[in-house]
Amino acid sequence: MLYVGRRGGMEEGIVPAHGVPMEPIDMRGVQDEPWRNLPLAWALPVSVARAAGMMRRFAPSVVLGTGGYITAPVGMAALLRRVPLVLQEQNVVPGRTTRTLARRARLVCTAFAETAARLPGVPTEHTGTPLREEFAAAGREARLRPAEERRDLRRLVVVGGSQGAHRINTAVAEALKTLLEVPGLHVHHVCGKLDIDHLAAMRGGLEPEMRERYVVEEFNERLLDVLRDADLVVSRAGGSAIAEVTALGVPLILVPYPHAGAHQRYNAEPVARAGAATVVPDEELSGVRLADEVGRLARDPALLARMRRASLDFGRPDAAREVARRVLEVGA
Question: Is a pLDDT exceeding 50 seen at residue 173?
Answer without folding.
Answer: yes
